[in-house]
């Protein structure tokens, strides 16, 4: 399985773009947060290789498979999906959907490189779901008076091309081959435009945040006794750097990183530490705070807004409130999973 398949996981856009909520089992203690955060991927992180254990890029399959039949049985001008949103109605025809799906699934080079030679079942329903989410995203941008600039689209295209290029690793002119495939497969420009829209919306939502809004970015110094914590506060008041003291004194696993616990909701911490975080003045050391781990001195360095998470929540809300009808020849709308379920599934 190629790394690019991770990019194509946007076929499951309800997971990728409309995010899965974190379960309560994932909550971390104050000191665990410092170690776990370093190892966890975020929405903006590098995509997983999708299971390529040997680190090699998947080679094209030598087996060719007959292209699948057109995904829609309706006439090209027949509507395949209608969505009524609070601020407008959107519909797409079988012909418009097939303009993306048919050339994509008939491109055997793409199918071989990405899917191992066989188009996955439900591809058309997946693309239809993405088309709907893309329109919901457009309504969000319209509401904010924003649009996808040429620069934003170009950046998204270059990022996607760099992923496609990995499919041709070890070959001459890999970049040229990636650009050629991009031009031949209409799904790829569609995907680049969606990613650009998501980036624009995420940035706008981050920039619109009020001061103090978002997740607190916390650093701390963990010591064994209250008197040691008091000494830390004295040294900080004397002008010593927080990160340097954390490296020198902190007994927690975040000490070598200057005590950095990352940017997470205070609810991720144990209650007494969370309360101290919520009451701390920005940039001012707070403590001593006692937890089961010892005594802490902490500082809230800044607040960080996860625009992508906010965008995902807004898209989920918009889709859950929409009235969606799908041509039964292609599938049905699942209002709980917020996706089109292929006919016969």
Structural class, by secondary structure, is alpha+beta
Number of domains: 2
Q: What is the average of the pLDDT values? A: 81
Give the end-to-end Cα distance, rounded to a whole number of Å.
24 Å
Approximate helicity band = 40-55%
Shape type: elongated
Tally of separate helices:
13
User: Cα-atom Rg, whole angstroms?
Assistant: 25 Å
Features:
single chain; 345 residues; alpha+beta; Chitinase A, domain 3; 2 domains; four-stranded antiparallel sheet; three-stranded antiparallel sheet; elongated; disordered N terminus
Describe this structure in words.
- This protein has 2 domains: 4-27 and 55-209 and 310-342, no CATH class; 215-304, Chitinase A, domain 3.
- The chain has helices at residues 4-7, 13-16, 32-39, 94-106, 108-115, 123-143, 150-165, 174-184, 187-207, 226-237, 242-249, 271-279, 307-321, and strands spanning 79-85, 88-93, 215-223, 260-263, 286-291, 294-304, 323-326, 331-334, 339-342.
- The strands form 3 sheets. The protein has a 4-stranded antiparallel sheet, sandwiched between helices. It has a 3-stranded antiparallel sheet with strand order 2-1-7. A two-stranded antiparallel sheet has the order 8-9.
- The chain is built from 13 helices and 9 strands.
- It is α+β, with helices and mostly antiparallel strands and 345 residues long.
- The two termini are 24 Å apart.
- A hairpin with a 2-residue loop joins strand 5 and strand 6.
- The longest helix has 21 residues, at 123-143.
């Amino acid at each position: 399985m190629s790394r690019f398949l991770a990019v194509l996981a946007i076929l499951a856009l309800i997971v990728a773009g409309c995010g899965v909520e974190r379960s309560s089992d994932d909550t971390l203690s104050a000191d665990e947060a410092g170690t776990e955060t370093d190892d966890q991927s975020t929405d903006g992180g590098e995509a997983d290789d999708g299971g390529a254990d040997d680190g090699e890029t998947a080679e094209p399959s030598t087996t060719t498979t007959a292209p699948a039949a057109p995904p829609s049985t309706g006439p090209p001008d027949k509507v395949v999906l209608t969505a009524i949103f609070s601020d407008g109605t959107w519909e797409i025809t079988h012909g418009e959907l097939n303009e993306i799906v048919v050339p994509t699934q008939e491109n055997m080079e793409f199918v071989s490189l990405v899917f191992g030679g066989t188009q996955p079942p439900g591809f058309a329903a997946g693309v239809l779901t993405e088309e709907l989410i893309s329109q919901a995203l457009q309504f969000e941008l319209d509401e904010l008076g924003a649009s996808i600039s040429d620069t934003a689209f170009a950046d998204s295209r270059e990022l996607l091309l760099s992923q496609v290029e990995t499919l041709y690793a070890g070959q001459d002119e890999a970049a040229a081959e990636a650009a050629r495939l991009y031009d031949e497969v209409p799904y790829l420009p569609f995907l680049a435009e969606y990613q650009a829209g998501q980036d624009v919306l995420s940035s706008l939502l981050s920039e619109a945040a009020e001061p103090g809004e978002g997740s607190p970015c916390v650093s701390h110094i963990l010591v064994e006794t209250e008197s040691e914590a008091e000494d830390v506060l004295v040294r900080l008041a004397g002008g010593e750097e927080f990160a340097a003291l954390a490296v020198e004194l902190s007994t927690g696993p975040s000490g070598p990183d200057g005590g950095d616990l990352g940017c997470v909701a205070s609810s991720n911490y144990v209650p007494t530490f969370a309360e101290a975080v919520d009451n701390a003045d920005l940039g001012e050391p707070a403590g001593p705070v006692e937890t089961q781990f010892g005594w802490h001195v902490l500082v809230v360095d800044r607040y960080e807004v996860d625009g992508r998470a906010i965008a995902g929540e807004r898209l989920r809300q918009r889709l859950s409130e929409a009235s969606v009808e799908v041509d039964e020849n292609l599938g049905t709308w699942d209002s709980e999973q917020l996706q089109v379920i292929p006919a016969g599934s």
